[in-house]
Amino acid sequence: MQKTLIIIGLAVLAVGLLWPWLGRIPFGRLPGDIVISRPGFTFYFPITTSIVVSILIAVILKIFK
Question: Looking only at Cα atoms, what is the longest distance across the chain?
Fold first, then answer.
């Protein structure tokens, strides 16, 4: 459990440090993501992005188990 928490902490740290460059990747604005824009209101639901991230995490966990 301790190793897992340390690895998760290091991953969060790495993403935090790389965030200025990761923000330029168009990931998170995939076709299929729902965006509703009205005057003074914007609703964003990244359904496709969530599915892709879920698949990537499942594959990574499958590789390391």
Answer: 48
Weakest-pLDDT range from 1-5, 19-23, 39-43: 19-23
Can you tell me the distance from the alpha carbon of 9 to that of 2, in angstroms, rounded to the nearest whole number? 11
How far, in Å, CA of 54 to CA of 46, rounded? 12
State if pTM tops 0.70. Answer: no
How remote is the C-alpha of 57 from its chain's centroid?
10
Under DSSP, the state recorded for 25 is S
Residue pLDDT, tens place only, 33-47: 888 999 999 998 888
Element housing 36 (H / E)? strand 34-38
